[in-house]
Amino acid sequence: MQVDGSSRRLLVRRSRILGAILLTMVAASQWGMLWLAAVYLRIGRIGHMLSPEAAVGLLAILAAVATLLVFDPRIARSAPDFTGWLLAAFLLVAIFGEIARPDLRLGNVSTFLSIGAYYLVGMSIGSMAAQRDGQLPMLRGLLAIYTIWYAGIAFFLAVGDLGFYGVLPGSGLPRLEFREGFTATELPIYVGFQFPVLLYAMFTSNSAPTRLWAFALSLCAVALVAATVSAAAIAALVLALLLFVLARQRSRHAAEVLLAFAFVAVPIGAAALLWAPLGGIIDSASEKLGNLFAGEGLRARIYGELIHDITTYPMGIGKGRFVETNNFSWLGEGVYPHHNLLGIGAELGVAAMVLFATLVVTAIVVLGRRALGDPARHGQRFRMLVTVALAIFAYQQFRGLFQDTWVVRETYLWLGLGTGAVLTRVARSAPTKSPARAQ
């Protein structure tokens, strides 16, 4: 796309502003988790709390309006935004359902609005990135946010608040989790946002220090997930890596990066398996699945209760009510849904569940067609940007088969970013053997 000097300066200025918004939202999500971890350790896990991510979510509603002034809304779209319309329909059903309840909770309404705002802001950032040939803004800033996150994790480890306090069911293997609060299955949720961005930096940056920085952080991500001994999280991490391999299968640079990554990651994985034998992980996962199909075990009972609520209350019992109304006697406390679709169906209703399932399929198809499609039509860096959004969304939805991840707002920021990039109609040059890489 040919632009004059003034247009290029305006594009760079808008990119910086949107990049700053991106950093603010990502930092609120990542560092907000550390803040919540500290609060949970101090006063225990409580249901109603204004987290940093929630506070920024309220500001995101204003930011979504502000980006209409920052970003030119007249840029042509290559196709209708089916993903956005489905998300809007899902959120409207959730909002109207909450408003109709006698015990209305305005906090839930603001959550739904902020999810939509995160998506709209992501759309603006993605459209801007598409105009810059797929260059993710503020890449080094994102790496800095992740570095501070791992420094926080290291601090919790050093003071003993984070350690091998959990036990993998069916195997007796110790697993990494907080002494109080976040469990071993929740820690990998935040790694799922980091890992695809780290792969993007390794695959596209022409700065050796940036690639080395991302490489070191990716090893931290692998080590943390391995320490949680979560089969689902490990599989989701492999899924994200596989998507990048497929998107860059014709690139010699990608092969070099993967070889270097494997050279260090494989010994880490081997050491983890010596401490937590693979057979134990497989046996535990097999036992869980067997109990699930047999209608036994904790998850089977949780899912059974969710299905009961879906059939009994097709309009839903309301967001956050499941953990309050279902107190399993053998645990002595309420439990979370542990499944995106069933949790949405029980709390928000059947209509919301169907809309969300359709949204997931549509988003994966839309992003997958660009990320894994014909490389002759799209530059490699642009495809890597879309792959970031695809890998993050696929990771979180795969985890959503075993954990309720749908309410994490950062998911919709990256979904909007990928969709905005895909739908922005700009002239892209044909890819070359050595495409320009992001800094």
Features:
439 residues; mainly alpha; two-stranded antiparallel ribbon; two-stranded antiparallel sheet; 16 helices; globular
Describe the fold and architecture.
The chain has 439 residues and is mainly alpha-helical. It has one domain. It is built from 16 helices and four strands. It has a two-stranded antiparallel sheet with strand order 1-2. The chain has a two-stranded antiparallel sheet with strand order 3-4. Helix 1 runs parallel beside helix 5 and helix 2 packs across helix 4. It is globular. It starts with a helix and ends in a 16-residue tail after the last helix. The C terminus is likely disordered.
Secondary-structure topology with pairs:
Blueprint: H1 5-43, H2 52-70, H3 82-99, H4 106-131, H5 139-159, E1 162-167, E2 174-178, H6 187-204, H7 208-228, H8 231-247, H9 252-275, H10 278-294, H11 297-312, H12 321-325, E3 327-328, E4 333-334, H13 340-348, H14 350-371, H15 380-399, H16 410-423
Antiparallel strand pairs: 1-2, 3-4
Short structural description:
With 439 residues, the protein is mainly α. The chain contains 16 helices and four strands.
